[in-house]
Amino acid sequence: MSRWPSNPRGRLEQAAMDLFIEQGYDQTTVAEIAERAGLTERTFFRHFSDKREVLFQGGELLQAAMVEALAAAPPDATPLSAIHEALAAVAGIFDERHDRARLRQGIIDAHPELQEREGAKMAKIATALAEGLRARGVTDPDARLAADAGIAVFRSAFAKWVRSETGDMSGTMEGCFVALEKLVEAGR
Amino acid sequence: MSRWPSNPRGRLEQAAMDLFIEQGYDQTTVAEIAERAGLTERTFFRHFSDKREVLFQGGELLQAAMVEALAAAPPDATPLSAIHEALAAVAGIFDERHDRARLRQGIIDAHPELQEREGAKMAKIATALAEGLRARGVTDPDARLAADAGIAVFRSAFAKWVRSETGDMSGTMEGCFVALEKLVEAGR
Lengths: 188, 188
Hints:
Arc Repressor Mutant, subunit A, Tetracycline Repressor, domain 2, 0% strand, homodimer, mainly alpha, 2 domains
């Protein structure tokens, strides 16, 4: 049982992902997830509002890590450089979870309503980054635009990374920032 | 009654918006919308799945207009120029509906679940534009990235335009494309 995380939240996530893979997302109930984790349904609902939320629990941590890194960027960083730093700072978190992310993506690709939830999550992160830029003294429309452009790079890098064999989020993201520069330059 | 559109769909939209403004979005029922439009609830549900959809009916038309304009962009246009042309082509639609858009935005701002729906709508448009770029021979990640960067500009321009007094979507969007170029240039 050494593969099981010791905290209930981690156990529940592990159990849910195992079951989603073994028998399918649609077929898996909260009761089964709790049973597999050796916990009660009551405990499940203390940590997650439903089974869908197990797939999206990382969103808030990711957002918090990005916002913190954005606040820590050098004061003289331009809006897009500050966003670039914030995204680069979290890239490492992804590589640790490449296999898990691939499995999760397979589930999301098969469920349009989960894609909608994923889109909403990214929109929320973009809003938080725009707010973080405003706190650095950047005004709109630049704050909104730099945050959205950063999320465009992030989404594009994530889509490439999650389908890659190796999983090098830092390198993939740097490549996508260069791609954005080239697109904008060529589009003038 | 000359202010009423002659088609049922238009009448229902007019009635719904009037009621949302007069008595609030939450307080308005489908029965009241149908009554105000002089139509039956049955007719309402032939056109909209619920009252929320009245606010989002423009999304599909907008997406179709953008995708069509994207396909019509010159074959040698760069990915971001082609997106730029597609967005510029639909700007005129917005100015005709500035007052209505402001009222609609007020309702959306007050309802987080509608903001989520709006975010999902924009994500769907971005996906359609990326697909349109692939049809033009652009490969990923450029197709995805140019579409998302275009939507970032669009969202930023829309946010500025909808809160403006005059309503000049073309000019606002051109300004935001220039702002993106400057952000990217300064971020190098």
